[in-house]
Amino acid sequence: MSYDEPLRLPATAIPEGCRDWTAGQAGVWSAALPPRWTFLRVRRSVAAGATTFALCAGGWAVVLGGLWPFLAAAFAVYVLWVLARPELVWAGAPALLLALSLQAPSQPWAVTALFVLVVVACWAVVAVRLRARSTQYDRVLEAAEGITAWLPDAEEPVRRGSFLRNLGLVVLALGVLTGATSGLWGSAADRQGAWAAAFFVAGLGATALASAWFGRHRAVELRREPAPVLRVLVRDDVEGSTEVYAADDVRAIRPLFTVDLTSFDDDEDEDDDAEAEGAEIEDDDEEELERLLEVVDADTPGPVREAVLFGAPFDGAEVLVLSADVDPAQPPLIEWSTGPVRPLSLSAGRRRIERAKAREAQSRQLEEQARELAGTQPPVAVRRWHAGWLDWLAAALLVAWGVWLCWAWFTESGTAVWKLALVVVLGVYGAVRVPVKLAWRITADRTGLWVTGLRGPQHVPWEDLRSVRRQRFELKLRWRGDNWTVAAPHWGWLERTRGLVHPYDALAAELSAMRTDPALRPTGESTAPERGRPLWPLAAVLALGWVVAVMALR
Questions:
Q1: CB–CB of 314/341 below 8 Å?
Q2: What is the mean pLDDT of the chain?
Q3: Which of 50, 205, 546, 552 has the fewest C-beta atoms under 10 angstroms from its C-beta?
C-alpha cells in the first residue's frame, strides 16, 4: 500500500498550542548528540558479543591468573552496562575499581593495569554520553516553547517495567541456583567457572531489575505533571520499531530517533454482560491482530503518520506517542515506550534510510523477476523447494557446536550423572532440529502449500497464507493461526558487495508473487511423495543413536 501524504491526526486530538518540531529545530537537537565513540547506538548482537568476549577474558584470568570469579563476572556485566545501561556505570565503576585494588597484590601488575584502564576509559566515555542528555533535553524544551499537556492516559496504571521485573527475578534466581550447585563440579577450575557463571547470571538478573526500575520510574515521572508536547511524524519500520521524524519531513528522509512502542487495552472495565459479546470481541481482536501482523511482516516500512510526542526525547528517555492509526476508521493510537529513546545522528539516519530503500528495492526486483520468469515459462503442475547447501552448513554448525560443548566432559574421569543427563538433553534437542534443517521441503500446488514438519506435511491454503519473508537468518512463513521458520547463515555485506541473492530471498519472492497473483500458481495437485514425509522417524533414530553413544562412551 502506498501513501502520497502523511495520515492525518484529528485536530481534536492535538493539544492546544502544540508546536511543530521542525527540521531546523530537530537539527539543533541532533547537533547536541554525543560522538559516535560513546556507544550511543549499539546493536543488541554487538552488545551480546562484546559481553560474551569480556566474560571469556575474565574466565581466562580466573583459570590462569587466579582472578576472583566475582571480578570476572562483574567485568563482563560492566561492559554490558557501558553499551546498554550507562546509568549503572556511575555505581559500577567505583565498585569495580575498589574490588580490583583489593585483589591487586595477588595479581600481575599488567593484568590489573589492563582492567583498570578499560574500566576508567569506559567510565569517561559514559560520562560524555550522559552529559549530553541535559543539552538534548534543553533543546526540546526550546522547541516546545513551554507548551505542555497531560498525557491522554495519565490516569491509567503504569505497566512499564513489568516484563523486565519478572524476567530479572527469574534470571536472578537462576544465578543463585547456579552458585548453589557449583560444588557438584569435579575439579577446582570447574567450580571456579561455575561461580563465575553464577555471578554473571545474577548480574544479568540485577541488570534487568534495574532496567525495569528505570523504565517504570521515568514512566511515572512523565505522568505526574503536564509534559512537553511536539507535533512530529512517525513511521513503523520493518523490524517493528517506530521511527520519529520532524513535522515537516513529509518524505521521511531523516529519522531523528527510534523507539519501541506498544499499546495497552484497558481490561479492567468489564461488566457482567461481557460474555454475551465475547464471540464478537474475539473476532474483532483476531482481525486486529492479523492486521498488525501484516504490517509487521511487510517488507516495506509502514505509512508516515501525524503524531503528537508527549515528553522530551533524549538518549534513554521515556515518551508517549499519540498518532493517527493506519486504519482511518480507527481512533488515534496511544502507544507507550517499552524501551528507551535511541537517537540517530545525521549520518546514521541517512544510512538507515538508504538500507531500507535498498532492501525494499531488492524485494520488489526479486518479486518482479519471479513474475517475469513465471510468465515466460509454461505452467507447472507442482513447484517444490527444499534444503540446500546453506541449510546443510547450518546443520553442520549446530552439530559441531553440540559435539564441542559435550566432548570436554567425556575426557574427564568419573563424569557426574547430571552432566550425562545434560548431554543427553542437548543431543535430543539437536536430533529434533537437525532433520528440519537437512530435509525441509515446501511444495506448492493449486490448493496451497505443503510444509514439511516432524509430524508430516502441513497444508496451508493460498487464502490463509499471510506472508513469506526472510528476516535476518530466518525464512519465515506465516499463515492464519500458525507459522513456520528455518534458519541458515546470512552475510548481508557479502551479498551487497558481490551482488549475490540469498536462497531464502529468492524463495520468498517467488512465493510472494504466487500469493498475490493466482495466475502464477501451479495448476495441478501434488501427490503424497511430492509433499515429503514426516521427519520424526529420522529425529527418533538420531536421538536414539546419541543416547547409545553417550552410554557407550561413559
A1: yes
A2: 82
A3: 552
- Tens digit of pLDDT for each residue in 25-45? 999 999 889 988 888 888 887
342 CB-near residues (< 8 Å, 6+ apart): 41, 257, 258, 259, 315
Retrieve residue 327's grid coordinates.
486504519
Q: How far is CA 475 from CA 351, 503, 533, in A?
A: 25, 10, 20
Q: What is the pLDDT of residues 435-457, one digit of tens each?
A: 988 989 999 999 999 999 888 89
Range 229-253 average pLDDT: 88
All cell numbers assigned to 89? 556505570
49: its cell numbers:
558479543
Q: Which helix (H) or strand (E) holds 308?
A: strand 305-310
What burial class does residue 46 get, using C-beta atoms within 10 Å of its C-beta: 0-12 exposed, 13-18 middle, 19+ buried?
A: exposed
Rounded mean pLDDT, 311-324 = 91
Euclidean distance between CA atoms 173 and 205, whole angstroms: 8
The predicted-structure confidence for 322-352, as pLDDT tens digits, reads as follows 998 887 778 888 998 888 899 988 877 777 7
The vertex-144 CA angle with 139 and 145, nearest 5°, equals 100
Tell me how far apart the alpha carbons of residues 340 and 129 are, in angstroms, rounded to a whole number: 14
For residue 476, the surrounding DSSP H or E stretch is: strand 474-479
Please report which helix (H) or strand (E) contains residue 467, including its range: strand 465-471
Cα separations in angstroms, 164 against 48, 159, 239 = 17, 11, 21
CA dihedral angle for residue 282, residue 286, residue 291, residue 297, rounded to 10 degrees: 150
Amino acid identity at 206: A
How far is residue 210's CA from residue 215's CA, in Å, rounded to a whole number? 9
Backbone angles phi, psi at 328, to 5 degrees: -60, -20
As given in the structure block, the three cell numbers for residue 58 are: 575474565
Q: Looking at residue 230, what is its pLDDT?
A: 94
* Total length of the chain: 554
